[in-house]
Structure formats: structure tokens, C-alpha cells
Design a protein that fits this description.
The structure holds two protein chains of two kinds. By secondary structure, chain A is mostly helical. Helices cover 78% and strands 0% of the residues of chain A. In chain A, α11 crosses α13. Chain B contains 14 helices and no strands. In chain B, α10 runs antiparallel to α11 and α12 packs parallel to α13. Classes of the chains: A mainly alpha, B mainly alpha. At the A-B interface, α1, α6, α7, α11 and α12 of A face α6, α7, α12, α13 and α14 of B.
């Protein structure tokens, strides 16, 4: 098992390395020259300063040596400075990552708590009214544009009813735990609605497939009640593929995070990436994108790990 | 199986599709949406409205005889802009799905049929693309400087090139699902007797792929492509909403919502309609895709 895990980790590192080159190349194709932008923003910089900085960051040198130079400093823990904040990239990345994790895990838990039980209900009432209704609701949730849901939530709960704040993570000046939670409600609701439909459909499909297995029929034949078969025998097995898909879904959840954070002005990693790209903050955009990619890769490794831990038939080969 | 009939939905598959209640609803919605978008010029002519004329005296007006759904923040007719936005969103969605399906099919068939090193390289490449965070990547691609790619930035001033740019950037990252499905289907087909016999008779690989493999991966291809249209429309609208997709003055449902953001408290209906249109369109494609999945299932009877 540990050998397989090691192999997966090495594979993920190789993929990350290749993707870092792709992302580095793409960021270099964005408009503007970071040094010129910096010079334009600070009048006391002389032409010599500009030349020195260009030499330092390797602007003007071909892509591959420039990339290797960046990779070398990045591996040494030096990701450069952010143009937007003036702080080092590592310091800039920290707080938003915490905010995004709070947002993603809250919405993951909310979506799971609602969608998984309903998915089981739909599967047990397969092709009856409850199933059709839940399935249609799941399709509706999948088809909703997240940014529009976010807008509507703000319109109803912040503008009309004035119950909840429109944006940010806390009231300026700080407001304690309750204040932070109040700021989380709407972004979590928007993001959870996006995941709800997918999770319900995964759970339903897995449960329907499991209920068709021979050993379910055996359990029924031996006199176990339908309810007991579903909860004791089928559910545990149906959760195996669902867990895997949830971990794999982490990457697509991140796309929703970008949009949600942009609409709610929620200062997380998603908004950071957006602001960095729009503000020509190359160092920051590069590092934040790498972070998002690494998160997706970790999700796929966790999916693999969960699958082998949960299903004794698979084993971590 | 010969090539031609497989390309069309068989009569029984079409029957199963229309028997599938939600899919039928989706199909009807799609037909209505396409008719509405296509008849935009007729509707505009009937009401004497158009999508571009600015009327500062009629800003943010409510529904009236002259403007059935009212006007936006610079007095442009909302109905007309919704219909024109629909042409853009449907057109970009369908075209992108086709381009992505074409890329995915070529990669999937090549990887599945040739196998070996080519398969390994192509599939690791696909995994790599899947590992990239999709929307941030699209934001980067949307923000790229055409001049640094050696393109003249002026070409994007034409509407056609501006829309083609969006089709290309979404298709570049959107082909992975099709590639995986087509590869999986190819793997099961390439060991069939009719493929073996074609190879034994000396058919060149390209001919085997085009004549024997391709017609038999059409079913999963149709399903995946239909289901992808909804996702692509969601991506395009999110990208346009963030200001990196379809750019004003070309109306799209996404960029209409960006403008509506500022009028949110005073004119909520501006934010309502484009969102409803996106939702209905994406839902319709998803319902039809799901119905097709059941209808084209070789086992024929699966319905869930």
C-alpha cells in the first residue's frame, strides 16, 4: 500500500512539474511587462534600476532558462514579491488560503448532509414520484449558473431583507465568530447548491447499482427487511464510489469557488487568482495557480487512497 | 454495422427519447429557444426594437408596449438583447462543443486504437489537463495578450474573431471527457471480429479508424457532446460575467448580468432574465443529454 502511495505521489509531482512549465509559459503570454509596470508605478526608479530588475528576473532571456531560474528560486522557497500587495508571495497566499478552505469545507459538508440522504431516498424509491422529483431537482441544481445564484441570494437576503452581509469575511474592525459565520452563510449556500445536484446524482446512481447486486437479493431472501438491507448492506458499499467521486470533484468545486468569491468579494484564493491575473501580478498569479493545481492533484490522490481503504476488494495495489 | 444508419438516431432510439418525459421537455425547450433566437430579427421588426440603439430617455423603464420586457441602464431593449444574447450563447455553446468533440474524438480514437506509447502519452496529457483548475485556466487564457502570440490584436475587433477566440479557448480545455469516453469505447471495439478481419484483409490503420471504429463510438460521442453543451454555456457565461468572455457591446447572457450587478437593488428584473435564460438552456441540454444516454444505451431498457 505504501509503495502504491509513493508511486502516486511521485507521479503527481511529475505532473505538477510539467504543469508548472505550462502555467509559467501561459503567464508569460499575459499582457504587459512586469518590470515596466513596476517602473511606471514608482517614479523614483531609475533606468539602471529597471535594467537591474530585468536582469534579476531574467526578462528578455529565452523561456526555458527563465523558467529554470524561477523553478530554482521557487524550490528554495522564494516565490518573489506580489505587485498588488508589495508583500512576498508566500505571505500574500496564506490568509486567503485559510478563507477558501473554510468556504470549501463548509459547503462540502452542507452539500453532503443534504444530498447524500436524499440520494439514498431517491434510489430506494427508484422510478416513483419521489425519485423523479429529486432527480429533476438535482438536474436543476446542476444547471444553475453559480454567479447568478450568488447574485439572487445577495438580492434577497442582503438587499431586500438585509439579514446578511453582502461581501467580505468579517465586518471591518473585526466582529467575532458569529460575524464571520454570518459572512459565510451566503457564499456557502451558493457553492453548496452547485455541489448538491452532483452529489445527489452520484449517491443515487451508486445506490441503485448496489441494490441490484446478487448479495442484496440474498439478504432479502434470508428475510432481512428492505430498510435493513438498504441501510446496513447497501449504503456502506454504495458510499465507496461516492467518496471517490467527491474527492475527485474537489478540482471542479474550485472553479465554483472562483466565481463565488468574485461575486461575494470574499478574499480567498479564487478571488486572489482573479485579481492577480487582472492586475498583471505575475508572481502571485503563478503561485496561486500552482497552489490550485496542487490541490486538485491532492484530491485525486485522496480519492485513490479512500477507495482502497474503503473497499477491501481493491487493496492499494 | 455500416456507417450511415449509426450516425442517425434509430427510430426506436428516437421513440425511447420522446418517451422519456424529462428529455421530451428538454427537447421542446431547446426547439423553442432555437426558434426564439433565430427569429430575433422578426420579433425586433414586429415590435420596432433592436438590441443596440441607446435611448437615454427610456433608461431602466419597466415593461411597456414599446419594450415588452423593459430597457437596460442605457435604454436598450431587454427582450431584443436577450434574444441576441441567446444567439451568441447558443452559437458559442454548440460550436465549442463540436470543436471540443472533434479534438476529443481524434485523441480518443488514436490513443485507444494505436495503444502503446502513443496511448500512454496522450492519456497522461489528458490527465494533466484535467488536473488544471478549469475556470482559473480559462481566465488566464482569456487574458492572454494576442500580440505575444504573434497575432495582430486588431483582428479581435471583428465580432466573428472575438467569438472565435472564446470558442477556441473553451474547446482547448473542454475535450478531455470526450477523449476518455471515446478511448474507452475504442478499446472494446478494436478487438471485435469485424475490426480484426478488416485488419487481416490489409486495411490501413486510418481506414480502420474512420470506417470501423468511428461509426461505433458515435453513441457515447453524441451523449457526451450534448451533455457538454450545458457545461460550456455555463463556463462561457461565467467567463463573460467576469469580463473575459464575450465583450460588450456584443450581448451575451453572462455580460448582461455584469451590467445588471450595478442596478441590482433598483432593477432586479435586469438580473433575473439573463439568469433564467442560462438556467433554462443548460437544463434543456442536460435533460436531452440524459435522455439520449438512456435511449442510446445498447441494453436499450435502462431507464433511471
Amino acid at each position: 500500500m505504501s509503495r502504491r502511495l509513493l508511486y502516486r505521489l511521485i507521479q503527481a509531482l511529475v505532473v505538477l512539474l510539467v504543469l508548472s512549465f505550462v502555467i509559467y509559459g501561459l503567464i508569460g503570454l499575459m499582457p504587459g511587462d512586469p518590470i515596466e509596470l513596476m517602473a511606471a508605478g514608482s517614479p523614483h526608479m531609475t533606468a539602471e534600476d529597471v535594467a537591474r530588475l530585468k536582469a534579476l528576473y531574467g526578462v528578455g532571456t529565452p523561456l526555458i532558462p527563465r523558467y529554470l531560474h524561477w523553478l530554482g528560486s521557487a524550490l528554495g522557497g522564494d516565490l518573489g514579491y506580489s505587485r498588488l500587495t508589495g508583500l512576498s508571495v508566500l505571505k500574500t497566499l496564506g490568509p486567503p488560503l485559510g478563507h477558501t478552505m473554510a468556504l470549501m469545507f463548509s459547503s462540502l459538508i452542507v452539500a453532503m448532509l443534504i444530498a447524500l440522504p436524499l440520494g439514498v431516498v431517491a434510489a430506494m424509491r427508484h422510478r416513483r414520484l419521489a425519485d423523479h422529483t429529486l432527480n429533476l431537482a438535482a438536474f436543476a441544481a446542476i444547471s444553475l449558473p453559480t454567479f447568478w445564484v450568488a447574485l439572487i441570494l445577495i438580492m434577497i437576503f442582503s438587499v431586500s431583507l438585509a439579514w446578511l452581509p453582502t461581501s467580505g469575511v468579517e465586518t471591518p474592525g473585526g466582529g467575532g465568530v458569529v460575524d464571520r459565520l454570518r459572512h459565510l452563510v451566503l457564499p456557502v449556500a451558493a457553492l453548496a447548491l452547485l455541489s448538491f445536484g452532483h452529489y445527489l446524482r452520484y449517491m443515487r446512481a451508486a445506490m441503485i447499482a448496489t441494490l441490484r447486486e446478487d448479495w442484496i437479493r440474498t439478504a432479502r431472501a434470508k428475510g432481512a427487511s428492505w430498510m435493513r438491507v438498504a441501510t446496513h448492506h447497501a449504503l456502506r458499499n454504495a458510499l465507496v464510489p461516492v467518496t471517490t467521486i467527491l474527492a475527485l470533484d474537489f478540482g471542479s468545486l474550485f472553479s465554483g469557488v472562483v466565481v463565488t468569491e468574485a461575486v461575494f468579494g470574499y478574499p480567498g484564493t479564487g478571488k486572489l487568482i482573479f485579481d492577480a491575473i487582472m492586475g498583471n501580478d505575475y508572481n502571485l498569479a503563478l503561485a496561486a495557480l500552482m497552489l490550485a493545481t496542487a490541490t486538485t492533484l491532492i484530491g485525486s490522490i485522496l480519492a485513490d487512497l479512500a477507495y482502497s481503504l474503503l473497499d477491501p476488494r481493491v487493496g492499494f495495489r | 454495422m455500416s456507417a450511415a444508419p449509426a450516425l442517425l438516431l434509430s427510430r426506436s432510439a428516437f421513440g425511447r427519447l420522446t418517451n422519456h418525459g424529462p428529455a421530451l421537455i428538454g427537447l421542446v425547450l431547446l426547439v423553442l429557444l432555437v426558434i426564439a433566437a433565430a427569429s430575433a430579427p422578426l420579433i425586433e421588426h414586429a415590435f420596432g426594437i433592436d438590441a443596440t440603439s441607446i435611448d437615454l430617455l427610456a433608461m431602466l423603464s419597466g415593461p411597456s408596449a414599446a419594450h415588452p420586457l423593459g430597457t437596460d441602464e442605457v435604454g436598450r431593449d431587454l427582450l431584443s438583447r436577450l434574444l441576441r444574447g441567446g444567439q451568441v450563447s447558443l452559437g458559442v455553446g454548440l460550436l465549442t462543443a463540436l470543436v471540443a468533440a472533434a479534438i476529443g474524438t481524434v485523441i480518443g480514437v488514436a490513443a485507444g486504437y494505436r495503444g502503446g506509447l502513443l496511448d500512454a502519452v496522450l492519456m497522461r496529457f489528458t490527465d494533466g489537463i484535467i488536473a488544471l483548475p478549469l475556470l482559473p485556466l480559462l481566465i488566464v487564457l482569456g487574458a492572454l495578450d494576442p500580440a505575444k502570440l504573434g497575432l495582430n490584436p486588431d483582428i479581435f475587433k471583428s465580432n466573428f474573431a472575438a467569438l472565435a477566440r472564446i470558442v477556441i479557448i473553451i474547446a482547448l480545455v473542454g475535450w478531455t471527457t470526450v477523449a476518455r469516453l471515446v478511448r474507452a469505447a475504442t478499446l472494446t471495439i478494436r478487438v471485435q471480429d469485424y475490426v480484426r478481419s478488416a485488419e487481416a484483409m490489409g486495411a490501413p490503420p486510418l481506414r480502420v479508424m474512420v470506417r470501423h471504429i468511428l461509426p461505433n463510438v458515435v453513441s457515447p460521442l453524441i451523449v457526451a457532446t450534448t451533455l457538454s453543451v450545458g457545461n460550456i454555456i455555463l463556463l462561457e457565461s461565467a467567463l463573460s460575467f467576469l469580463g473575459l468572455g464575450v465583450q460588450p457591446p456584443i450581448p451575451s447572457w453572462g455580460n448582461m448580468l455584469t451590467a445588471a450587478l450595478e442596478q441590482m437593488s433598483s432593477n432586479p428584473s435586469l438580473a433575473m432574465w439573463p439568469g433564467v435564460m442560462i438556467f433554462v438552456t443548460v437544463l434543456a441540454f442536460n435533460l436531452v443529454g440524459d435522455g439520449l444516454q438512456d435511449a442510446l444505451d445498447p441494453r436499450g431498457t435502462r431507464r433511471n
